Each structure stands twice: as C-alpha cells, then as structure tokens.
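Need OmpH family outer membrane protein's 3D structure for a figure. Predict it.
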Amino acid sequence: MNKNLFKLTAGLLTAASFIVACNQDKPATAPAASTTTAGKTVEPIVYVHSDSLLENYSYFKDIRSKMESKSKKAQVDLTAKGNAFQREIAEYQQKAQTMSADERASTEQRLARKRQELDAFNQNASSALANESAAENEKLYEKVAEYLKGYAKKKGHKMVLTYSKSNPTVLFADESLDVTKEVVAGLNSTYKSDKK
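Structure prediction for OmpH family outer membrane protein:
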C-alpha cells in the first residue's frame, strides 16, 4: 500500500507542478531565463524531490500512519473471522460422520453462507481502505498544489517540477534549483498551524 501511495503522490506532485506553471498570469513567449530581483537570482524553473517531500511532510506521515493503522486493524479483523470460520469447518468435519443427512446439509449451507459473508467482508474492507486512501491522496494533492501555487508566485518561479529516483522524468537538474527543504518547511508550518 505504501508503494501505491508513494506512486500516486509522486504523480500528483508532477501534476501539481504543471498546474502551478499553467496558472501563472503572464503567458510565456520564450523560454525564461534567470532574473535578478533585489540582488538575488530568481530561477524560473525549480524542482522538488518528491521522495524527500513525502518523507518529511508531517501531513503525509500522519496520513500514512492512519492508513497503516486502519489496514492492520482490518487485517486483524479478517484474520480473526477467518480463524473462527476454519474452526467451524474443522468441528463440522469431526462431527460429519455422526450427523444425519439433513444436519450435514443444513451445516454445509450455513458454512457456505459464512464463507460468502467472510468474502464480502474482505472485499468491503479492501474497497473502503482503497476509497479512503484515494480521498486522502486527493487532499494531499490539493494541499501541495495550493501551497506550490502560492510559493511559486511569491518566489517568482514560473514552474515547479518534481524529481524522484523511482520515477525519473527529470534526468538531471542543478542542485541550485532544488527547493525541497524550503517547500517542506513551508508545508509543515502550514500544516502545523492548520492543526491548531
């Protein structure tokens, strides 16, 4: 689940960078060059390490912990129900020789229904976790995209790209364009104040 969440988030960060670029007020007429503002060079394009962002963004850590906890709880519930079902099957197999044909048929029907209920429980739990994970990813995407939009505008950047070793769409970028630490610090500060 963590790998899927990471891949979804990496994809969302890539999309967020393009949203930031597309939402700039001024249309681009030519490739932008570095500009100087108050003695400081402003790069038009910067990047964020998505893996570092995810590992250091408190909101993502909270989401991951929450989803792992829910997944473990669902697994414990499923295991407990599965073990109880297996005990019932073993008990039936021990008593089957001494049961009448009607009792065997009735017990087999009851066990078949229980098996269907167990399968439905498993499917519903998996579906609920997947839906909640998708909703949390959407919230994560919105938080990061909104923050990057404001960040880029404030800093004068025209585009914020994402970089990840697991999904290398950017093969090389000068380290001077890396704004990951600054973005993570800003996101965590915003998240901390939102929690209060």
